[in-house]
């Protein structure tokens, strides 16, 4: 069991013929992802050879879906083409679109997210590392050899902190790890992932990683308090960030008393979430939770 992505997922890669698309398609294939095609306008009918197989290229998402029954698209296209790429995937009926591209204009993200939402398509990202169900499928750029399958669910705004937390808890493994991205507007939120993990019978506990800026973590805390019965541990990046300066992600900016790490920590702890001061301490908190779960205390 997993959330959003399984070994049955049929994945296409928009921008597969580009350098980043080819590099990460190779890595996804090595992780066992069922990649059934690539999409590059004007290159339909070609193919790209990888280590163990050749992947066909289609000129449009509509052609790719018609030929392969794809149900996931991973987007590796430049920012100026992302709106068109996501819109094309939505029009083709792809139910899950993972947008790796960073630097997408906020107005473009707002446009394609609203379009996707109206059509019932889930968007992950943009500016995210994607999603991995270890041992089954990997849609994005998360290194597949950090950790194997297990019963922890992970949702994170940060790509690098996703990788670190997977490494810290590699002895336990993950049901699914999802990097939702740190832009001001994103498709899938902490709350979306928390709800899915709550409903997943093979996820026993959840790690949630947030960062300064906005109020997503405060809203997630309220959701956890009202709806999540599984144990949640958290980490909020940015305790030392200076006010008014964007840190890393476009959405990671503190404005006055709004969006501070301390405020987010307070909200999470009030909802019963144990919050670590560092990623390593957060992993230790999860180990303690799992030890308690194991003995049934």
Automatic annotation (TrEMBL):
GO CC annotations, alphabetized: cytosol; succinate-CoA ligase complex (ADP-forming)
Entry's EC annotation: 6.2.1.5
Pfam families: CoA_binding, Ligase_CoA
Residues annotated as binding CoA: 17-20, 43, 100-102
Active site (catalytic residues): 249
Catalytic activities: succinate + ATP + CoA = succinyl-CoA + ADP + phosphate; GTP + succinate + CoA = succinyl-CoA + GDP + phosphate
Alphabetized GO MF terms: nucleotide binding; succinate-CoA ligase (ADP-forming) activity; succinate-CoA ligase (GDP-forming) activity
HAMAP family per UniProt: Succ_CoA_alpha (MF_01988)
UniProt xrefs under PANTHER family: SUCCINATE--COA LIGASE [ADP_GDP-FORMING] SUBUNIT ALPHA, MITOCHONDRIAL (PTHR11117:SF2), SUCCINYL-COA LIGASE SUBUNIT ALPHA (PTHR11117)
NCBIfam families assigned: PRK05678.1 (NF004230), sucCoAalpha (TIGR01019)
Quaternary structure and interacting proteins, as annotated: Heterotetramer of two alpha and two beta subunits.
Name this protein carries in UniProt: Succinate--CoA ligase [ADP-forming] subunit alpha
Organism: Kribbella capetownensis
Source organism phylogeny: Bacteria, Bacillati, Actinomycetota, Actinomycetes, Propionibacteriales
The gene coding this protein: sucD
